[in-house]
Amino acid sequence: MAIDAGQHVRHRSRLDWGIGKVEGSNGESVFVRFGDQLKTIKISFAEQFLEAVTAGELAAGRPKERAGPAVGRIAQCPECGKDLTRGADGEWRPCPHCP
Length: 99
Ligand SMILES: [Zn+2]
Fold this sequence. Notes:
The chain is built from two helices and seven strands. It is an alpha+beta fold.
């Protein structure tokens, strides 16, 4: 298969890496990002071991977007603009500055 930057792939023998994204190539190796790891894979191996992931598979395998920032992340109160925090239950805490 042709390996192009931006393409989503998986590694046939390293399925635990999940879905990676091809970041580029230097003509000898390709660079594929799996999560926060950037793997360098020789092109001859890449052609043998990397398998294209289709857009449909990608959509199915991607975790749903969270409704808002993760627990502990902050947002601003629409009333006073001060920081709000989100509890472990996923609910925003009431603004401590507004009645
Ligand atoms: Zn407020």
